[in-house]
Amino acid sequence: MKKSLLIRWSIIFVVIIAWTLAMFPITDRDYIKAFKKLAEKQVNKYARAAEKVPTVLRAEELQAQLAALSDKESQEYLDLQAKHQEIIVSPEYLAESKLPENETRKYYSDYEELWRRVEKLQKEDDDISGYKAVEFAAAGKDLGYRINLSNFIKIPFQGHTSNKAVLRYVRLKSAGKLKLGLDLQGGTEFIVGFNKSDLPKDEQAEVVRDRVLEILRNRLDNTGVTEPEIKAITADSVSIRMPSVDEADKTDIRNTIKQSARLQFHVVAENSENARLVEEYQKDPRTFKVPVDMLMREIEEERGGNLHTEIVFLKKTPEPILGEDVVRAAPNVNQFGNWSISLKFNNRGANAFASVTGKNVGRRLAIMLDDKVYSAPNIREAISGGQAEISGSFSFEEAKRLAGVIASGNLPVNIDITSEFGTEPSLGVDSIRSGGMAGLLGLILVIAFMIWYYKFAGLVAVSALLVNTVLVFGTMALTKATITMPGLAGMVLTIGMTVDANVLIFERIREELQRGKSIGNAVKAGYDRVFNCIVDSNLTTLITCWFLYKYGSGSVRGFAVTLTFGIVASLFTALFMTHAIFDLMVYKNWLKTLSMRTFTFLQDININFFKMMRPAITASVILVLISIGTVIFRDNILGIDFAGGTQLTFSCKGQEPDVESVRSYLDSIGHDRVRVGYKRGQGGIQELEIVLANFNGDTSAFGDQLDKAFPECELSPSSTYTVGGSVGSKFRNDAILAAVLSFIAIVIYLSFRFEFIYGVGAVVAVLHDVVVSAGMFFLLNNGELSLTVVAALMTIIGYSLNDTIVIFDRIRETRPLRKDLSYRELVNLSINQTLSRTLLTSLTTVLVIIAMLIFGGGVIFDFAIVMFYGMITGTYSTIFIATAIVNHWPKQSLREKEAAAGSAAKKAKAPAKA
User: Fold this and answer.
1) CA separation (Å) from 267 to 276, 279, 311, 378, 383?
2) Which of 84, 249, 589, 793 has its CA 20 to 30 A from that of 549?
3) Residue 65 CB-density burial (10 A; 0-12 exposed, 13-18 middle, 19+ buried)
């Protein structure tokens, strides 16, 4: 095999294997089993050392049994004590105690003691998580001495690490790599409230609540938790729903939510004075009194698995460096290789920090967050750069969490988590199940069509499609991205773009074969000719993704992330992997020809599209006006995601009705805009939650009506809230800003690659598709704007851009080859030449959409029908709108220029008339 082929195939195999392995384990593994597996090698080493000191081990076993007995006067206790005493004075014990293995076997004893403690904790609390059981057992509170977990599990590239770091490392290794979002898997709901009586008289509860909501949203975004759903439910409380997480993550989330983020700086007492006060305190803590101008605090630090505590005395008055002056807080690795939090101040904060450090050189400055001192570094010189660092025994996750809390700002009021629930997927279990089946069926139809139509080339395309899917999910696992419904919309677009790239390549190879080229030359020419087109179409979509991620929020960012991964994977599979497959087949002489089917009506197409331009554009203008009018004049166009509604919860004592039945019943009595699901409280009580849009009826009568409809479940009302939308004005403004900036960037990029008018044409076509698709959905299906519809509209943008770029690229390619054509004829020819590709790509995508329309219910249907309208308008706008705009730009063919130049020359030579 040629060296270049060998290198290419090696890269392909390495990438596929690495990305496939990155997805495993797909779901969470048992934490304790994962801990034991990671510790197995090191513990076996300790066990071998322990075998050389059996007498010492026996003595320790007896010591553990003695500690477990509560009756110290019993005969059993006295007998064991005598045996233990007999062993520890024996020559064997004394000899073994001097062996070097005796030190190592202590770790083995600690390991066995750890699992004895874990077992005890699990017996006391059946619901305790493996993470918490190991954490509490190692900490040793009320159980005995502290156990150093780094003796059993070594974190790569680190020496002795804290127990927190080891626990996090095991959790990372045991966690499932593919994480589903709140809409697909459900999660946990935290109800967060504050006491209105604590507010100043001039503060309105709703205003404070909205400030709390935005601060919490920023905090959770900064800590990297993907797409929380946050909404107001009463004047003094908000609901926060998070994707499913383990108990350790829940603890972090609770701390993140409740932390007030009050950052202060206090100068520590002079070194000699501080030492004196510490000494006085330690002599008699009960009678010691803290000086009135001082604060006594502890700094806790974990070193070598042991917790070290330092007492410091601080000046009571904080220094004039305010938390509000912090403009950036981020996790950072300090000079000692430990995680810390770096702070950057604004000008006022930088000046204050320089002043404080300049006046207190030689002393220590304590950094306090929410009344806890994390570090108190020595001030060696005045610090004028406006930067500081909080050091401590941080894991990366804790440093990231605290940095996010500081960066998001102080809460204006003390808040508390009043209740906590486990929730079902917000899309509904039935919708997810039917949508998954519909998507799988659609994918099977696409695969079957590609193999039937393109034969061997179709198999190559299918391999690219499957590898592309692996690469996307593998990358999401590597980056810990969350899979949501908008993310799956990005996957649908990725599948379409992967198929589209292969259709472009195969159709070009077909053209080259028809010109009489050999299979090898046809393959080479096919890939060469489509390279620019595929890169341009993917780069324009990547530009859109960048702006959506940079300036968008929530599900918009989720869509951008997934689509970005998909585009990169599509470029790899379409331009690199499939090319390597064809090159290998040609090199081995396994591929002598490449037969493909064709639809006869797609052969030798010669339609004069410009004859239809005027009526087509007139129809478009009418559709756009109708769509805009529908948005303006129709009531209740915003769905629950945006407008909120009335949330009613009912406890159920009998057999719980399934969600689909409840939804169908509510639809039959006129409540078609509804969200139904179950959630479980901490006491294990299951509650039916119904959110109704524009509900103005009697909640008691509604509950009675529902109870009669489902007598098998004794429904009783639990609570009724008027809830705000989970998507607020910030989401809307961010999405609009991202779209506008991406459109501007597309115009600039296409101006560079083509001409300015090409960028304008592409953007106008995209806007047309989005407006008409949304308008038809609102008008014909009486639909409402939801996050699912937003996901569909973003997908349409990608499809429309892709289609348009293909025609533009053909115009650019054909232009220097057909100088005999006018610009109008050139555009019309390019549309005809790419029509087969446009229709085939639309057909493969429509197969998936039709499957969703037939078998996908609920919100899946909404996504599919908007996409269906988008596919029609996208194909239509590419042919009639984008090209019409480009054609009306003042252009002349070379022949027309030459004719004009010749005419001018003749006039110049002609004799002047008197």
Assistant:
1) 16, 19, 14, 10, 15
2) 249
3) middle
Q: Could you give the percent of the chain with pLDDT greater than 70?
A: 91
Q: What is the pLDDT of residues 545-594, one digit of tens each?
A: 888 888 776 667 777 888 888 889 999 999 999 999 999 999 999 998 88
CA dist 493 and 500 (Å) reads 10
- Tell me the one-letter amino acid at 171: R
Ranges assigned E (strand) in 216-335: 229-234, 237-243, 263-267, 294-303, 306-315, 326-333
pLDDT beyond 50 at 895: no
Q: Which residue has the higher pLDDT, 428 or 589?
A: 589
Q: Which two tokens stand for residue 180?
A: 């589903």
Q: In the structure encoding, which two tokens stand for residue 320, read together?
A: 């004039």
Residue whose structure tokens are 């059996």: 54
- Residue 459 neighbours by CB distance under 10 Å: 14
pLDDT at 258: 82
Tens digits of per-residue pLDDT, 627-685? 999 988 887 788 877 777 888 888 888 788 888 888 888 888 888 778 888 887 766 67
The edge-to-edge listing of strands for the beta sheet with 326-333 is 326-333, 339-345, 387-394
Q: Which of 561, 565, 570 is nearest to 537 (CA)?
A: 570
Q: Kindly give, in sequence order, each residue whose CB lies less than 8 Å from that of residue 695, ignoring residues fewer than 6 positions away.
A: 645, 646, 671, 702
d(CA 300, CA 309): 5
The burial of 679, by beta-carbon neighbours within 10 Å (0-12 exposed, 13-18 middle, 19 or more buried), is given as buried
Q: Using the 8-state DSSP alphabet, how is residue 320 labeled?
A: S
Alpha helices (H) in 410-553, listed in sequence order: 429-454, 456-479, 485-514, 519-551
Per-residue pLDDT band at 914 (split at 50, 70, 90): very low
Give the residue carrying structure tokens 């008339």.
913
The DSSP line for 244-273 is ---HHHHHHHHHHHH----EEEEEBPPHHH
Residue in 418, 398, 144 with CA at minimum distance from that of residue 251: 398
DSSP E strands in 519-630: the ranges are none
Q: For residue 179, what is the enclosing H or E element?
A: strand 179-180
Residues 6 or more apart whose Cβ sits within 8 Å of residue 815: 826
pTM above 0.70, yes or no: yes
Q: What confidence tier does 452 reach under pLDDT thresholds 50, 70, 90? A: very high
Instruction: Tell me how far apart the alpha carbons of residues 305 and 302 are, in angstroms, rounded to a whole number.
Output: 6
Q: What's the rounded Cα separation, in Å, for the pair 33 and 35? A: 5
Other beta carbons within 10 angstroms of residue 669's beta carbon come to: 11
First to last CA, the chain: 82
